[in-house]
Amino acid sequence: MEDKPLNLTEYGATAQPVVNGLALARVVATSHDHYLIMTETGQLAATLSGRLMNLATTATDWPTVGDWVQVRLPDNPADGAVIERLAARQTVFTRKVAGRRSSEQLVAANIDTLLLCMALDANFNLRRLERYLAVAAASGAKAVIVLTKADQTTTLPEQLTAVASVAGTTPVVVCDATQPAGLSELTALMRPRLTYAFLGSSGVGKSTLINRLAGSDALATQAVRAADAHGRHTTTARQLLRLPNGSLVIDTPGMRELGVIDADVDASFADIQALAQHCKFRDCTHHTEPGCAVQAAVASGELTAARLASYQSLKAEQAVNLALRGKARENAKIARMFGSKKQMKTMMQAARHRRR
Ligand SMILES: Nc1nc2c(ncn2[C@@H]2O[C@H](COP(=O)(O)OP(=O)(O)OP(=O)(O)O)[C@@H](O)[C@H]2O)c(=O)[nH]1
Ligand SMILES: [Zn+2]
């Protein structure tokens, strides 16, 4: 926790006065429908206003970590604030939730830069990196590829060449958390007041990096507890931290399950897009079509078959996810208009009855 008064501009805000008891705040942690927000005077618990709750129909309508919100400040800080409005998001980060009616979940909002983490040990996998780059391309955020555990490899030059072959224009930094100056390439890129999120499989060293960046403040290990709707206490590790250098970091566990629902597969495979310009058919899928320039590039060795297979499976996954989301949107719309699908059917039956 901070002990000195905060300046919200350090959280990326432009100065905003408190008008009619309404102030600007940034969501730093969430637990069910309870929020921890950062205001000009420090951290405060908050809940959603009834109006906002009524308006919220899909998962993305609820505030998430990193959101800017307008809050009504309480007379007594112990009472907590009420979130009245959600500001438009610069970027949103969602992930696919398996087996849920609504197929996506909000992970974080207003991230400026994604730090795509991959370890240089056995975790090293170009295909996974391609997936991360596709998700990053669609998010609207910038991306940096962070290669971790440099002490665990003897083939760094070859790995850097391989990463360069899929990175496009995305910057690449190498980290070694075992060395005192091992994070210098990363810290050289990080700016005050910008919001960063670490993305990567479990065990690649994200927490280690965050703890090192947070230094003695050790904010990264702070657990956030808030009472949920049933009075239970839950701990969530997803939170927004301010580092001593002034950068903001969203610590998001579970990002490894990231689906490509919002991936921009084409944007992150610019090489394949460029080749596809020369395919005979404009809607070529680069499988077995005649005159396929992409297949020709594979045959000539210009493009690896593994990269093309990666592209095609991400495209297929994206198509399935988009279809699922369409269905979820449709259901949400029905729920908003009729309460539920069942009620809609009842009302439609009644209407048909009246017409007879
Ligand atoms: N050799 C070596 N080990 C590292 C390095 N960075 C992290 N580790 C170790 O890797 C293990 C996993 O690191 P974490 O920071 O917990 O990984 P994480 O990505 O946060 O994992 P999750 O919390 O499960 O997502 C720990 O034992 C770290 O000490 C490094 O640069 N070199
Ligand atoms: Zn083709």
UniProtKB/TrEMBL annotation:
The keyword Hydrolase applies. It comes from the Bacteria. Binds 1 zinc ion per subunit. GO terms for biological process: ribosomal small subunit biogenesis. Pfam families: RsgA_GTPase. Keywords: Cytoplasm, GTP-binding, Hydrolase, Metal-binding, Nucleotide-binding, Ribosome biogenesis, RNA-binding, rRNA-binding, Zinc. CDD domains: YjeQ_EngC. Gene3D superfamilies: P-loop containing nucleotide triphosphate hydrolases (3.40.50.300), Probable gtpase engc, domain 3 (1.10.40.50). It is found in: Cytoplasm. It is an enzyme of class 3 (hydrolase). Its cofactor is Zn(2+). Residues 103-258 form the CP-type G domain. GO terms for cellular component: cytoplasm. Residues 109-256 form the EngC GTPase domain. InterPro entries: G_CP_dom (IPR030378), P-loop_NTPase (IPR027417), Ribosome_biogen_GTPase_RsgA (IPR004881), RsgA_GTPase_dom (IPR010914). GTP binds at T148, K149, A150, D151, G200, S201, S202, G203, V204, G205, K206, S207, T208. One of its GO terms (molecular function) is GTPase activity. Its EC number is 3.6.1.-. Zn(2+) binds at C279, C284, H286, C292. The keyword Metal-binding applies. Belongs to the TRAFAC class YlqF/YawG GTPase family. RsgA subfamily. One of several proteins that assist in the late maturation steps of the functional core of the 30S ribosomal subunit. Helps release RbfA from mature subunits. May play a role in the assembly of ribosomal proteins into the subunit. Circularly permuted GTPase that catalyzes slow GTP hydrolysis, GTPase activity is stimulated by the 30S ribosomal subunit. Monomer. Associates with 30S ribosomal subunit, binds 16S rRNA. This is Small ribosomal subunit biogenesis GTPase RsgA. It comes from Lacticaseibacillus nasuensis JCM 17158. The lineage of its organism: Bacteria, Bacillati, Bacillota, Bacilli, Lactobacillales.
